[in-house]
Structures are given as C-alpha cells and as structure tokens.
Amino acid sequence: MMKRAWTYLTGLSQGILSARNWLLAYTLLILLPVSIMLGSFYQRSNDILEKEVTRTMQLTLKQAGMNLTYKLNHIRDSSNSVFMNQILYDNLLQKDKITDQLGQIKELRNLAETAQENEDIFRLRFFVDASRMYGGDRINLYPLADMDKYPWYEAVKEAGGGIVWTGVYPEIYNDYGEKKIFSAARMLRNPRDYEEIVGILVMDVSEMLVQEIVSELQFSEKYAPYLIDGRGKLIYGTDGPEGLEPDAAADSSQALNQLPEELLSAVSHSEEGIVKRTIGRDKVNVVYTTVGTTGWKLVAQVSEAEISHRATALGQFTSIATLAGITVMFLVLVFVLLMFMIQGMQRRVQMILRMIRKEGIGWLEDRRSLPDGDFRLLERSVDHLIHKVNNLMEESYRAKMQEREAQLRTLQAQINPHFLYNALDMINWSAISHDAEDTSEMIEALAQYFRLSLNKGRDNVSIADELELARVFLEIQQNRFPSTFTFSIQAESGLESYIIPKLTLQPLVENALLHGIRKTKNKQGTIEISVRLENGDVVLTVADDGIGMDPQQANCLLLQPAAGQTAEGLDGSFGLYNVHERIRYFAGNRYGLSIETKLGTGTAVRVTVKAVIRK
Fold it and tell me: What does the angle CA 56 – CA 61 – CA 62 come to, to the nearest 5 degrees?
C-alpha cells in the first residue's frame, strides 16, 4: 500500500515538472496581464456601481414618494370634502335649544364616521368652543382650548383655512389609548362671519401609513430612511445613529436623521437629487425626493463603504467569470503548443504500438522498471481510467436491477385494488345469497367508498364525487353508530363540474363525527355539509353541533400538524393542517380553511378554494 502511494506521488511530481514550461507560459502570457486588467476593472467597477446604486435608490425613493403622495392626496381630498360640507358649519354654529344641540352632536358624529370610512384615516376630530354642549365628548369632539398644547397650533392659525401637516407624535384617546399619529389640521371659520373661528378640523392618520412605505426602503444596514419637512424638522425616522463612533453620535449637526445647514439648503430648493455628506468617519451618499401635497422630503442614506462591500461581492462573481475565461485561454494555448509537439508524440506512440504488437503486452509491464517519464504518467492515467469505467459499469448494472424491482412493485400495487374490488364483490354476493341485506349494503358502500377515494390515481376530483364520498362515509358510520347522528348535504346547482383536491371533505366529516358529536354526553348530533359559489370562489362548509373547542386551539390546528389519535385509538386521518396545506398548494396562499367554534356549541369548518372547472 505504501509503495503504491509513493509511486503515485512520484508520478504526480514528474507530471508537474514536465508541465513547468506550460505553467511558465501561462503565468507570463495570461495570468500577469489578466491580473493587471482585473485591478483596473475593480477600480472602475466601484465607481460605476456607486452611480448605479445611488441611481437605483433615487428611482426607488421616487416611487415610494409617489406612493406616499397618493395616500396623502386621498387624505387631503377627504379633508376638503369635510371642509366644504355645509352640514359641518350648520352644526358648528351656536343653537340655544337642547334638542337642536343634541341633533348637532349626532350630525357631527355621523360626519366624522363617514370620513373615517377611508381606511387611511384613523380619527376625525373637531376642536370647538367649550361652551357648546357637544364640545367635550373627547371622541370626535374636543374643547378648542386643548389646541394650546400642540406646538403646530400657531402654524394652523397662520395658515387660515389651509392644511397644516404635522410630524409624528403620540396621542392618547379615551376609547383607544396611546397611538402614534400625524395629522392634517386646518381652521374652520363661520361662513356668515369670516372673522369668527368656529373650530379646528384635525384628521389623524396612523404612523403605520408612513412606516409601511418607509420600512420597505432597505438600502443600508446602518442608516434608516426618514422624512423631514421643508425646514429640516424630523417628521418620521429613527431616534438616532446606529453603529457610529460616540463622538459622531454626540455631534448634533451630524445626527443620523438631521441634515447640516448647507445640505438642507440644497435639498430644500430642488425636488430630488443626490448629495454627499460625512457622518463620523463615514462618507455617505444622501438621496432625497419630494413628497407632493406636504412638501416633505423623503431621505435615504448609504455609505460608500457599504457600496464597496457590494462591489466586492460583485467582484467575486466577476473574478470567477474571469478565471473561467483564463482557463479557456489556457486551453487554447495548450492546443497551440500541442500542435508543435504532436509529431514527436506521434512517433513515440507508434513506436510503443509496434513494440506491443511485436513483443506482446508483457513488454508494457517490463517497462515498469524503466525511468519514469511523460508516457509512464500516461500509462498510469489509462490504467486508472479503465478501473473507473469498470466501476461505473457495475454501478449502472445495479441501478438497472433496482429500477426493474421498482417497476415490479409498481405493477403489484396496481393489481391490489382490483383484487380488493373482486373480493368485496364476492363477499357481497355471498351476503345476498344468505339474505344478509344489511351486510350487503355495508359491503357495497365500502366498495363505493374505495372506488371514490382511489379515483383512478388522480389527485383532484369533481365536487359531485367528493360529496358522494362524504355521503358514503357517513352512511357507513351510521351503520357503525346507529341512531346517533343525522346529516344533510346541500349544494348549489351548477357546481358539479368544479374540481377540488381529493379527500378534502372526508377528514373534516370524520373530525366532526369522532371529535365533535361522539364526545358529547349523549353522543348524538347533526352534521351539515353545504357547497356554494361565493365571490367567484367555491366555499364548502362542514358544521356540527358537537362539543366544540377552544378557538385558539382550533387556529393552532391550521398552523402545525396535530400529533394525536382518533376517538377509537387509531391514527388520525389527514387532519385539518394537511387539508389546509393541500388547498393552499392547489389554489394559492389566500385560500384554505377557517374554523368557527366555541366550547359546547359545535364547530363549523369553512373551506375556500379557487373555482376551477374540469377541462
């Protein structure tokens, strides 16, 4: 063994020495020039990548700004709609009668609820004179004096009836608790006496509206995007810098979400652009765009160090591609050099062949004692190749034998169902001949159940077949548990040709019977199965009046497979989790199962699946 290893290492070293001229040519003619080219390419790729990254950031930031503008425009339009509604002013003016003031409260609340139907508006608030009866419910109606606590109140008064957009701030609601919001506020004047201020209209918007858009802008691991107003005041963003030196964090003019005065001036006078700044030791590219309606600036930052890191990753891919190209060039060089060596090699090969024909194969073995060389290395390689080919032939033969055995097992599996049907048919005739009608009916139902469940190997069945399978299963269970439960099946007409995954209803029906009805005290109940078309989808419902379950436990059954057993101690069927996952695989993630249940009142499992007609 040691001798063979030593021989192998000796042959390898001889091969390397023989290829030294090739390696030298490869280094001088290919490797050295390509290394110089790669260095130059790496520097240029860094510059190009920085431009491309910032340009991509600008386009993405602009799209996010347009999305935010679109949502804020909707809020502005809702504010304008309320602002120009005559009903608002009719109910803000002073009325003496109590009944009239109660009517005003009702109308103002209806107006607020109508505006809040816009999903982006969290709360509509009216700040009115505290002398009004309705001026203090603190749901939609607040005393005007409360406005003094807001720092943006002066800006609202200066704007007259124009909209003032606030930054994000926490607000405490009597019926909700604390929530972070930003608002669109404007002054309301008496249309009969324009100098009289009758209230302040404030539309509150959840911070989530901005957060959902800004959080998707993941340009940098160190710097988060943020919103500022035209004066540089923070509207929404992180609290401070992350991953910076302490001295950089302490310098307020270099704060993560605050631009220096010279940059703020440039940003304020243009709609969008790219500027550079320094934060601590980081050189940072600042990309910004303008949010329409408000004049806010959406700002994102990425350091040049992060861009260089991306360039390194890109350079790795480029290096692999370059090395592949170098390898191809080397092979071309090998081919050219071989052209000069082919004649000498041919003469040597012909000489070896003549000696083998003359002296026999034993001559080749005798040359084992001769000094090693190129052809000695070639002989070892051929010998290794022959052994490898023999091993591959043996593996191929074993694989074919295993494939043959698998085919035989498949044929046997196809024979078993036919044998089962024939055996059931023989038992059925035997039962009929002995006047055992109940046994005959059970055997026929069982045979029908197996035919429907196997479905000729197909994974999807028609709704009609699935309902028939459920009916047969329940009839078998009625014979098993006589006078314990009843069932009904209702299906809208025209749904018979739609298809669903096989064995969708059977596990649900089995759960309803064994885990719902059979676990009640009297072990009696009703199972109802219904199928209908709803909003273009097929909805199947299996409901029972059994013991029910905890809703939280029911939801867990859809998130992970249940490790349990049926009431009879046998392994469970497919289970709710399995059916839910198969429906999602068949129709998509928005489809599947939902459970309505309560302890002691029963369970209703709703299956929603895409409406697919059999072709």
Answer: 100
Residue 248: predicted pLDDT: 39
Element (H, E) at 287: strand 282-291
Residues composing the chain? 615
What sign does the CA torsion over 346, 349, 350, 351 have?
positive
Give the residue from 65, 106, 21 showing the smallest Cα distance to 214. 65
pLDDT interval class at 163 (50, 70, 90) = very high
Residue 10 pLDDT class (50, 70, 90 cuts)? low
Helix (H, G, I), strand (E, B) or coil at 174: coil
Q: Distance between CA 340 and CA 350 in Å, rounded? A: 17
Q: Structure tokens of 226?
A: 């943020």
For the range 472-480, what are the long-range contacts, defined as Cβ-Cβ under 8 Å and sequence gap of 24 or more? 472/445, 472/448, 473/449, 473/506, 473/509, 473/510, 474/509, 474/513, 474/527, 475/445, 476/442, 476/445, 476/446, 476/449, 477/513, 479/438, 479/441, 479/442, 479/445
Instruction: Please answer whether residues 237 and 167 qualify as being in contact, where contact means their C-beta atoms are separated by less than 8 angstroms.
Output: no
- The span from the CA of 227 to the CA of 182, in Å, is 12
Angle at 149 between CA 148 and CA 150, to 5 degrees: 95
Average pLDDT, the chain: 77
Contact 272, 38 (CB under 8 A): no
Tokens of 29: 């003619």
Q: What pLDDT is stored for residue 530 in this prediction?
A: 95
Task: Single out the residue of 213, 161, 168, 217 nearest to residue 190, CA to CA.
Answer: 161
Of 480, 432, 471, 479, nearest to 449 (Cα)?
471
Task: Look up residue 94 and give its DSSP letter.
Answer: -
Cα 439 to Cα 444: distance, rounded to the nearest angstrom: 9
- Among 94, 87, 95, smallest CA distance to 113 is for 87
Tell me if 540 sits within 8 A of 530, measured CB to CB: yes
Mean pLDDT, residues 377-381: 57
Q: Pairing mode, if any, of strands 602-610 and 537-544?
A: antiparallel
pLDDT confidence of residue 91: 84
